[in-house]
Amino acid sequence: MAYTNSETPRLGSLVSILGGAKLGFVVGFRRGGFIKAATVHKDGRRDTAYHLLESLSEPDPHNIREMVRFYDTCAGFYDGSAGAEGDVAGLIESIREQVLDLALAVGQAIQEMRPPYDRERIRVCLDYAMRTGVSADRIARERLRLEATCGSVCL
Asked: How far apart, in whole angstroms, are the C-alpha atoms of residue 76 and residue 81?
């Protein structure tokens, strides 16, 4: 299983749909250039829908709004897939770590982006720090530092 948008997806591939608005894994195909993809939401709800191959697209890596949306999509998929049950539970569980790796890679990219004091960027950076194992005390100190640096405009 691999994350792909640059080649023809295969069964079990992770795909970004509509510029990162959705993250799904391919569970089937249909004539006419459609893939059947399953998505998992933060609340654990799962959807399966057909999407045109043309709708598979990644977020613009220079657009902070699209990258933040993609991070939230990946994190929501990961959080919602915990304790998956049902017919595709085994597949969901097998790609959970891959989704986390993708979320962390996107989080790292956002951390390196500018502007340095964008509200959504800061929120993602703090969430990213938590997911990479930074202590709660250190995250709280960083939040205070950011508040002092950029004021209530940021946070």
From this structure: 8
Residues 100/80, Cβ–Cβ less than 8 Å: no
Give the number of C-alpha atoms closer than 13 A to the C-alpha of residue 31, restricted to the C-beta side.
0
Of 64, 58, 70, whose CA–CA distance to 116 is shortest? 64
Residue 131: closest CA among 110, 154, 153 = 110
**Cα–Cα distance measured from residue 51 to residue 79, given in angstroms and rounded to the nearest whole number:** 23
Tell me the pTM: 0.84
pLDDT per residue over 57-92, tens digit each? 999 988 989 999 999 999 999 999 988 887 778 888
Rounded distance, CA 128 to CA 107, Å?
A: 6
The 10 Å Cβ neighbour count of residue 81 is 20
With tokens 């195909």, the residue in question is 29
Tokens standing for 73? Answer: 């999509």
The span from the first CA to the last CA of the chain, in angstroms, equals 38
30, exposed or middle or buried, with CB in 10 Å at 0-12, 13-18, 19+? exposed
Specify whether the CB–CB gap between 76 and 41 falls below 8 A: yes
Contact (Cβ atoms closer than 8 angstroms) between residue 23 and residue 73: yes
